[in-house]
Amino acid sequence: MSTIYIDNKQYEVKAGKNLLEACLGLGIDLPYFCWHPALGSVGACRQCAVKVFKDENDTHGRLVMSCMESIRDGLHLSVSDKTAKAFRSQVIEWLMTNHPHDCPVCDEGGSCHLQDMTVMTGHDYRRYHYKKRTYTNQYLGPFIHHEMNRCIQCYRCVRYYHEYAGGKDLNVFAAHNHVYFGRERDGILESPFSGNLVEVCPTGVFTDKTLREHYTRKWDLTTAPSVCNHCSVGCNTIAGERYGQLRCITNRYNSQVNGYFLCDRGRFGYEFVNSANRITQPLIRNRTVEAVDEAVLMDHLRALLTNHTLIGIGSPRASMESNIALMQLVGKENFYQGISDNAVFVEKRIVEVMQSGVIKTASLHDIQQSDAIVILGEDLWNTAPVMALAVRQGVMKTAAHQALQNRAIAEWHDAAVKELVQQEKGFLANCTVSSSPLDEISSSVMHKAPEDLARLGFAIAQRLNMVLPVVQLNDDMSTPAAVIAAALQKAKRPVIISGAGYYNEALIRAAFDIAAACKATAEEVHLAYVMPECNSMGLAMMQASGFENAVLRTSRVNNVTAIVLENDLYRNVPAQIADVFFNNCQHCIVLDSLHNATTQHADVLIPAASFAEADGTLVNYEGRAQRFYQVFVPANKNMQESWKWLMKMQPVQTGSAVERSYHPEEVLAMGEQLLPRLSGITAVAPPRNFRVNGQPLPRAPHRYSGRTAMLSNLTVSEPKPKQDYDSPFTFTMEGYSGMPPSPLIPFFWSPGWNSNQAVNKYQEEPGGSLKNEHAGKLLFEYKQDATPVYFKDIPEAFMVRHEKWLLLPQYEVFGSEELSAYSKGISELSPSPYAALSQLDADPLSLVNGSLITVKIFEQVYELPVRINAAIPKGVMLMPAGLAGMPVMAWNSWVQIISIRL
Amino acid sequence: MSATEHILIVVGVLFVLLNIAAGLIWVERRLLALWQDRLGPNRAGPLGVLIVLADTLKLFFKEDWIPPFADKWVFILAPAIVVGSVLLSFVVIPFAPGIVVADLNIGILFFLAMSSLGVYSIVLGGWASNNKYALLGALRGASQMIAYEVFMGLSLMGVVMLSGSFNLGDIVAAQQNLWFVVTQPVGFVIFFIAGIAETHRLPFDIPEAESELIAGYHAEYSGMKFGMFFIGEYLGITLISAMIVTLFFGGWLGPAFLPPLAWFVIKLFFFIGLFILLRASLPRPRYDQLISYGWKIILAIVLANLLITGAIALWLRG
Amino acid sequence: MISHLRTMWLVFLHLFKKKVTIEYPEEKAELHPRYRGRIVLTKDPDGGERCVGCYLCAVACPVDCIALQATEDENGRRYPDFFRINFSRCIFCGYCEDACPTYAIQLIPDFEMADYNRQNLVFEKEDLLIDSQGKYPGYNFYRVAGLEAGVKKKGEGENEEKPVDVHSLLP
Predict the structure, then answer these.
(1) Which among B46, B19, B42, B18 has a CA at the least distance from the CA of B29?
(2) Helix H segments across B164-222?
(3) A158 Cα to chain C: minimum distance (Å)
(4) Which H helix or E strand runs over B59?
């Protein structure tokens, strides 16, 4: 700690920071543009000027940029100094000379950092009477709208896109007052993290194109803290609604999970909530009038739920509450995971490993702080994009740490650090099946079949712990194994990442063995397994058997009523198996939010609320349970949370007349009783009756507009505001207007800070944790003194078969995930089906890119265009997984090419 | 007087009084408007008199709401007390020779007793409302009543001394030659002030002061219960005006070209008009000023008045 | 005391003064051109809707009686998809007019909007839009704004230089 004097008042601040961070951390308003807590300082915008004095007797002082000045013990500075203030307001005035008169039609307006800073400095009148500079805009794809006239040349976009996220196609062009931020030519931004430009840009140069379709100002959004449901990372988001429609997703800062940034799938994948494909009405099929109301439905269900054997099919994308409610309804022994046995087997192993408590789970924060990262058999970039971004930060930060050793340069000094680091990188071993943008920053890249990767993993573990059995490796693998082992041996905080992506259980074991072996030398070892879907970990922790077992059960019992919870089985198991299941079931009740292949087979179809209309809990890849809150009450009363429907079915089934409503925490408590493994999950969020000063928390900002007019076209008498009995929130702007506690932040706002930069005010220190941060509840407990039990059965090496290829999934950021694919932009960017082969395999068959091959998989025949990828190992064929309209493949099976059309 | 005649008088007095009180709604609104350069209610009926009917109908059709937090029975009782006590006071007023409900020989004392009962309605209403503004209003009302009750009684003693009777009929008769306002000017002024305070009319409407207490003791009242308070206030004005006329302005006495009742009514309306003029012109004093003014100044003056009147009366008889 | 009596006398004398009451509806009050009555939406000199759907009127409204949804035409010109004022809530404060950056929303000297049915007081865009520029003739927001919305090209605005040629190295 250092003592500094700001305007002659004494403060204790953390040493090593810069003055801007210190001032903001103390709650002193100081304008800035080019500085960003995640990007560091470059001192480019000249906006954060303060006066620094030699000592307490110095009255003259000198102007410095506070973001470029380190804290010194006993430093005297003045923020409110007249010269400094005048300087800051003049800088804004200069920036504004070219800023267009666009605020009314600019999407940033009302959440604009430039507006906030202009008001803060007091500049309010244009004295410059000459012409404004203009630029032409570029088409940047379906997500980002470009309006270059508004640029204030802070360089944040390029520093973020280029240096932080590793994108190559956005840059700064031209010179002097003509600098231009954009692409070399019009085109879609390549990085899957481009959406963050919207939040990084302090003004409206980059804005959310999907929001533009149904534009709403920040002050008009009804927002709730939510959790992204498009992958297993569980990024915290803010979902905003207006006029009964989900309007946008913005980042909800959280120091442990996603920090400042989201991926484009998470940010723009929300449109399925507004989809025309939503199920809106309970349906009882094969009747004259299929659409029914709740009373008729429940009446009909009485016959189906009694005197039948109930089978529940859980879902990896439904909330814990819904899965628990289903398990409660059908009974523990009748509950099955709605995923294939292969996946269940792998995920079960992951839960086992995590449950053992030998290794700490790796949060994204841990990954960013790590000094050596090994990715073993998971295509992070496509299955958990934000984790890939965290890996990149880990690599960059390690490089910076190494470069800064024994040098008197602060870590935040971005330009200087970059200069020092040059091309150096921290250690990252990216061992996967195919190539990925992470390869560029990897010290060690390996593209092998999953078995070989597992063997590589065991070999690394063996090199770290000689007690383990020796693995015979080829030369091309033993050298990298030695290199990786050596790097891990030196590392203080290594992170091992693997995942369930290739359905290979050996990879899970190998990753654990490496992590366990690292414990001997490292201070802290972290392990992460990427899961397929947002609640895969939660479902896996319920330890039910897989879908094939359910099919087996239905073939033995006649009078089965199956309840399928938010699960398109045709995406998780091959179609034949699903067909058998539906044929075996006497009745089938399906709850889901969107029509899909599974809902076609439903005898009774029940509309389920999407994440925006529901309260629920998701468990992310690290076993972190996080609550997402209902954003709005849909006008359609039929759309209810699945768990609410299921809890309503309970009295129908037991025949008891007592009907009562349940709250999420009650359902979770039920889960704790059913499954002791989940104990502690009720602590995921404050209870529903949580109040601050006796007041609930408002979902809408205090300036929310149109309350007495938005529904007046229907009836001029305003309806009573919707009540929320499941959470501490109100659906209006009424309630506690101060700063809510961390898991209950529906939006970031502070007086004078309307943009998302207001997050500074919610943090302990800029870029640090939120005040009283409660980042969900970790369900896996780390046991300090647990002794690792190594896995010693090492798989056989991968053998290339003659004229047969091992079929593996290739995940795509855009397209592989079910719900996000409903977004227009995401479906636009998702690839069309293909079969990817190694160059080594393509050449003998004289295949070129685009040749059509006919592939035979278990009697099924598909014709697909070929993509040749040099990185793919020989004998492996990749097909994109989960694309809309593409059937589920039998992954890890051997396929034949039966014909070729060139 | 026969029983029929008596009943006729009672019914007649009641009828006329209640109509006057209701009619005062219109009179007050019109007069206030005229003094404020406006026209006032002039749409319903000739000159707008039917506004009275409209107002009454409105009051009847309003939701007669008793707050759930109120003390229900006391809440209902309070507005009845105010009307009851004021109407009872009218019992002793001689409107004209022979037109008096009860010619009590302790008339003044009866009047004082009844009018001081009126404070119960304020205190009970304020208490039963279970609302802080209402309670504050009630407390103010109580202390104001206690203060001004004293001078009201004392200011009348001069008249009693001069007339030698508590009977109001005798007092009127005693003014055959000279109205007591001439011999008792100080008594008149003080009685007038105390009367305003007693009826808590502007400028002494401290218990209900809209701008401070949002309506004071009757803040929670609505519908006809509020209407009772409203009517009670107008009856109070009429009562005090009638008392002033009786005690200081010779009651029904007047030149013979008009019948005695007509003289009484003319004088009565003059003072009612004066009450309204007061409301139109004077601002409300502060609560503490009102009370200290009462105890520190008026009490002294009224006692002095009593002493001097007594001395002169003794001297004259002497 | 004397001053009190004098006050009462002076007030009494007002009985004989001329009354200021205007007996509406027989007699109408004369309204100033800038009287803040009914709200209208005006058009720009080129006949286009002036409203750009910026939501500032809605947020300025103290009774929250304005609701709208912005949308865009094929040129990128913003306009309200719907624009609704619930006049049964409107207090005619004029804040919406103050807030309007495009002179679209204006209050005009007409207040005779009473109705027996509250529902009739909900005005949609079709009811609000008038074919006039109102109090501010000659102003077209899109001529001074920086973006291109089919009104002018980039750099052709009133106060704009030609667009920067990024490929040029000239100063």
Answers:
(1) B42
(2) 168-174, 180-183, 185-198, 210-213
(3) 16
(4) helix B51-61
Residues A525-572: tens digit of each pLDDT: 999 999 999 999 999 999 999 999 999 999 888 888 999 999 999 998
- Distance CA(B120)–CA(A598), nearest Å, equals 77
Chain B nearest C-alpha distance from C32 (Å): 22
* Interface pTM, i.e. ipTM: 0.89
Residue C10 to residue B281, Cβ atoms within 8 A:
yes
Contacts of B273 in chain C (CB under 8 A): none
Q: How many CA atoms lie within 13 A of A413 on its CB side?
A: 17
Residue of chain C nearest A149, judged by CA positions:
C146
Greatest alpha-carbon span in chain C: 90
Q: Which CATH number is associated with domain A2-96? A: 3.10.20.740
Which stretches does DSSP call E strand in A398-525?
A: 427-432, 444-447, 494-499
Determine how many CB atoms are found less than 10 A away from the CB of residue C6.
11
Angle at A336 between CA A333 and CA A342, to 5 degrees: 130
Q: What pLDDT was estimated at residue A588?
A: 92
Q: What is the pLDDT of residue B1?
A: 59
Evaluate whether the domain defined by A356-531 bears CATH number 3.30.300.30: no
Q: Hey, are the CB atoms on C162 and A134 less than 8 Å from each other?
A: yes
Question: How many Cβ contacts (< 8 angstroms) between chains A and C?
Answer: 143
Mean pLDDT by 10 residues, chain C (171 residues): 86 86 86 90 92 94 94 92 94 93 92 91 93 91 90 87 87 74
Please report the pLDDT score of residue A362 as a whole number. Answer: 93
Residues of B with a Cβ under 8 Å from any C Cβ are: 33-39, 277-278, 280-282
pLDDT digit string, tens, across residues A843-891: 888 888 989 999 988 878 888 999 999 899 999 999 999 888 788 888 8
Judged against a pLDDT cut of 80, whether residue B206 lies above it is answered with no
The full set of domain ranges for chain A reads 2-96, 356-531, 804-901
For chain C, domains (ranges, CATH) are: 30-144 (3.30.70.3270)
Name which of A49, A88, A41 is nearest A65 in CA terms: A49
Measured between CB atoms, does A127 come within 8 Å of chain C? no
The burial class, CB within 10 Å (0-12 / 13-18 / 19+), for A165 is buried
Residue type, A587: H
Give yes or no for residue A116 having a pLDDT over 80: yes
Residues 6+ positions from A97 with CB-CB distance below 8 Å: A126, A128, A130, A132
Q: Which amino acid is at A423?
A: Q
Percent of chain A having pLDDT more than 70?
100
Contact A220 C55 (CB under 8 A): yes
- Touching subunits for chain C (3+ Cβ pairs under 8 A): A, B
Chain C residues near residue B39 by CB distance under 8 angstroms: 19, 21, 23
Same fold, A356-531 and A804-901: no
- What is the structure's pLDDT at B253? 78
Q: Flag whether residue A185 sits within 8 Å of chain C, measured between CB atoms.
A: no
SS3 B234: helix
How much is the pLDDT for B57? 87
* Rounded Cα distance, A578 and A336, in Å: 14
pLDDT digits (tens, 9 = 90+) for A132-151: 999 999 999 999 999 999 99
Residues of chain C in contact with residue B37, where contact means CB-CB under 8 angstroms, are 14, 17-20
Number of helical (H) and strand (E) elements in chain B, helices listed first: 13, 0
Chain C residue with minimal CA distance to A99? C146
| pLDDT score recorded for residue A532 | 92
CATH fold, domain A804-901, is Barwin-like endoglucanases (2.40.40)
Q: Count Cβ atoms within 10 A of the Cβ of residue C75 and give its class: 0-12 exposed, 13-18 middle, 19 or more buried.
A: exposed
Phi, then psi, of A739 in degrees rounded to 5: -85, 120
pLDDT tens for residues B108-148? 888 888 888 888 888 888 888 888 888 888 888 888 888 88
